[in-house]
Design goal:
mainly beta, 7-stranded antiparallel sheet, 3-stranded antiparallel sheet, 12 strands, 40% strand
Amino acid sequence: MDQKVFHTLTYGLFVLSVNCYKKDNACIINTAIQAANSPDKIVFSVNKANFTAEMLDYTDNVTLSVISEDAPFSLFTRFGFQSGRDAEKFENFDGVKRCENGVLAVTEGTNAYLTAHVDEKIDLGSHILVVATVTGGEVLSSVPSASYAYYHAHIKPKPQESTGGKTVWRCSVCGYEYEGEELPADFVCPLCKHPASDFERSAK
């Protein structure tokens, strides 16, 4: 099967935040929808390899910040391309608000946020599907929400090609480069956790 068929689906972009044992953490996710309105419920998916997913084993409160089209690439670098196991993602970052549920909302490069309480978690293998009841929210700006396609076309820097003659495999999501003639089929990007199917071969 051509894995690129999944690229035709419509995705948003969000910062999923948690607070556990007085530690704030967050990661970028691309799957979240309103699933019901009586009561208001959302469903989102998070990669099990993310520290944020691990922290969901110890807390039921989350905040989902909706990334907007004016978000800088640095927002993705901060919350998507480093692990909360190794870095304090909110350190020296002022674009936040502590919500009533005790979790930080990202207020820069976003147009809204929702606070929610986790009701159910479903193990999907690589990801966890989370059903949560919305407890609050605020619209921050009228800037349109960024889609996954908009991120690739307008936010993510374009790769710089060179002619060194080496073969590299470049992650189409974050730009990470793997050098080698063949990319292992089970390779996972160490930055954004996307699989080998999201890598493109090019000459460096």
